């Protein structure tokens, strides 16, 4: 099988630094890289068209059967605190479509797989690339405007209705649709409307993530100048509006005033378009001595971080699934956060008492306190859930589901078949 993968989000793990304006690496990027490699190991030949930053090769043979192409038209270096580099995804789409025109002469896919994040450009990629390449496309909603996405600015709110319409358009013309959670699958089925059985639930895989040895976490603490008896409260991911970093800082401020709360260090791992603003907010709150910032870390270092944490905090405005939460729990660390999107299906089935209403910083601070000062209860629940989490989100599970998803898409598009795809499922 040949698959053309279209996504502006893809982790280039051969680097040890990542310019924040080029959309610093997060869970979606890592998960798509992992899926691509696991599929290559199953014999699926793939070409990936994605975003990259200066210095990366335009074409890289990642491994047998997997070619990664950086497809990006030239664009000015105008930065945005919401999106990183202004026009980056538009430049990616233009470059990807131009590459499709050149590539179709010598390489034709059986299927195009589009990864959509709630922005209009990836949603347009499927219908346009399908016409150029003469192949059907399937669409994965890593973040759905119809389900969990919350607009991030006044301009985003103004265009929200338009992007929802484009999402519907792309979904209806896809040979097959997949979502990360059953909840979003149900919402999409009602919104279109379409037969729910025609939407595949394919959760992201977190791979073979497990707790790191004590020596690794001790070394990490020493590098951060954090004593062994001081709890680490962590924020891991993109420093961006939708990830709720402001509420993390607000919770740290409340922590100082919480009766009985031990002295703690607040660890921020990652970078993003609002990284500088977060550091300024921490300084203005008088918390600079309580915070540690690592910036971008290679993903191979993340399990040691997750293991060292007393609790991972996820104050996100929206989360389709919450890969960071899964990684933390696979390492034995409880997660406190807002009860939004997929966190209700991941954290909510393990430690529901650590999820609080979105925006309630006081309740979030209390949940963090409960995880840190009474760690045996939450940690025992997390440890008991590991086998179930591994079965659902571990290495191989998402790959099996992805292959089934591809088979459904190709069956729906096969000449002479009457198996309905998303396009034919409208009532």
Q: What does this protein structure show overall?
A:
The protein is of the alpha/beta class and 427 residues long. Helices cover 40% and strands 16% of the residues. It contains 13 helices and 16 strands. The protein has helices at residues 27-41, 88-103, 120-133, 154-173, 182-191, 214-224, 245-255, 275-284, 302-308, 323-330, 361-373, 376-393, 397-413; strands spanning 2-6, 45-50, 59-63, 66-70, 79-80, 84-85, 111-116, 137-141, 176-179, 199-201, 232-236, 265-269, 291-295, 311-314, 335-338, 355-356. It has an eight-stranded mixed beta sheet with strand order 3-4-2-1-7-8-9-10, with helices on both faces. Strands 13-12-11-14-15-16 form a six-stranded parallel beta sheet, sandwiched between helices. Strand 7 (111-116), helix 3 and strand 8 form a beta-alpha-beta unit. Helix 2 packs parallel to helix 3 and helix 7 (245-255) crosses helix 11. It starts with a strand and ends in a 14-residue tail after the last helix.
- The fraction of residues assigned to DSSP E strands is 15-25%
Shape: globular
The gyration radius over C-alpha positions equals 21 Å
The main sheet comes to:
8 strands, mixed
| Largest sheet strand order | 3-4-2-1-7-8-9-10
Terminal CA distance: 32 Å
Number of strands: 16
Mean pLDDT: 90
Low-confidence segments: 418-427
The helix fraction, in percent, is 25-40%
Looking at how many chains there are and whether they match, the oligomeric state comes to single chain
Write the H/E string, N to C. EHEEEEEHEHEHEHEHEHEHEHEHEEHHH
Which structural category do the helix and sheet elements fall into? Answer: alpha/beta
Report the total helices. Answer: 13
């Amino acid at each position: 099988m040949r698959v053309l993968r279209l996504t502006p989000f893809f982790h280039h793990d051969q680097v040890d630094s990542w310019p924040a304006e080029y959309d610093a690496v997060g869970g979606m990027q890592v998960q798509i890289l992992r899926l691509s490699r696991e599929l290559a190991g199953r014999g699926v030949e793939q070409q990936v068209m994605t975003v990259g930053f200066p210095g990366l090769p335009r074409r890289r043979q990642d491994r047998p059967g997997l070619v990664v192409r950086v497809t990006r038209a030239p664009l000015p270096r105008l930065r945005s605190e919401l999106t990183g580099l202004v026009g980056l995804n538009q430049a990616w789409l233009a470059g990807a479509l131009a590459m499709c025109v050149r590539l179709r002469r010598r390489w034709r896919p059986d299927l195009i797989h589009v990864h959509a994040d709630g922005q209009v450009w990836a949603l347009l990629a499927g219908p346009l690339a399908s016409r150029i390449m003469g192949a059907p496309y399937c669409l994965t909603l890593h973040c759905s405007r119809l389900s969990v996405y919350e607009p991030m600015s006044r301009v985003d709110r103004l265009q929200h209705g338009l992007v929802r319409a484009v999402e519907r358009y792309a979904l209806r013309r896809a040979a097959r649709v997949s979502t990360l959670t059953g909840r979003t699958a149900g919402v999409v089925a009602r919104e279109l409307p379409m037969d729910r059985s025609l939407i595949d639930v394919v959760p992201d895989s977190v791979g073979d993530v497990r707790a790191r040895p004590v020596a690794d976490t001790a070394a990490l603490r020493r590098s951060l100048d954090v004593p062994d008896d001081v709890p680490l409260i962590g924020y891991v991911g993109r420093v961006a509006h939708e990830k709720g970093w402001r509420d993390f800082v607000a919770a740290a401020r409340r922590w100082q005033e919480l009766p009985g709360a031990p002295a703690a260090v607040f660890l921020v791992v990652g970078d993003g378009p609002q990284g500088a603003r977060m550091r300024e907010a921490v300084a203005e709150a008088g918390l600079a001595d309580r915070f540690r910032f690592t910036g971008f870390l290679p993903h191979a270092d993340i399990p040691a971080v997750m293991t060292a944490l007393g609790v991972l905090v996820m104050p996100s405005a929206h989360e389709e699934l919450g890969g960071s939460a899964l990684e933390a729990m696979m390492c034995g660390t409880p997660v406190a956060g807002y009860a939004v999107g997929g966190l209700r299906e991941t954290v909510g089935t393990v430690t529901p008492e650590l999820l609080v209403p979105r925006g309630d910083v006081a309740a979030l601070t209390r949940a963090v306190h409960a995880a840190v000062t009474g760690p045996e209860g939450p940690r025992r629940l997390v440890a008991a859930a590991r086998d179930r989490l591994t079965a659902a989100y571990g290495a191989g599970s998402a790959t099996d589901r992805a292959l089934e998803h591809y088979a459904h898409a190709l069956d729906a598009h096969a000449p002479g078949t009457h198996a309905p795809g998303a396009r034919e499922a409208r009532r």
